[in-house]
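Blinded run. Sample ID left blank on purpose so nobody reads anything into the name before looking at the predicted structure. Input follows.
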Amino acid sequence: MDPDEAILDVEESMIKSVDYLIHEFTGVRTGKASPALIENIDVHVHAYGGVSKLKSLAVISSPEPRMLMVQPFDPATTKDIERAIRESKLSLNPAAAERSLRVPIPELSEERRREMVKLVKQLAEEAKVRLRAVRKEGMDTAKKMKAANTITEDGQKDFEDEVQNLTNKYSKKIDEHASSKEVELMKV
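Blinded prediction complete.
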């Protein structure tokens, strides 16, 4: 494997780790309503005999700053969707309206905000663990290329330095995303 290709693979994996973290952050509840908050809830639909993501069963919109509207494609799934939202870890209480569900997003208490900040920190730490795993793969690739005489000892050192620089860069990005999400959560 070419060293430049290997570096690009490492960087691509690190970018995916950061992107996944950003995606995870969309599901962390802040004070305002966002369709991303509930779109990945798993819904067990008795009529279909399986589990589907909410976004594949309904249109989710935010007609008001503190309200989500869920409009199922199939009205027969309304009760299943309502149960899934109610049983989710988000502490939401949907109200059935005609052919849709209204999901009020209550104001977050100080205690709940602190719990959400802890969750954000935990998600950020998990992303850093993924980053370190990618770094280890990159370092192992350098050793394999050195063993195969694809690169020299100096080339291996340069490669490892480049992998470490990428790790530092994306670790900093994770910290920046986490701190901005914390600020967003603590803003009343």
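Unblinding after everyone has recorded impressions. The longest strand covers residues 58-64.
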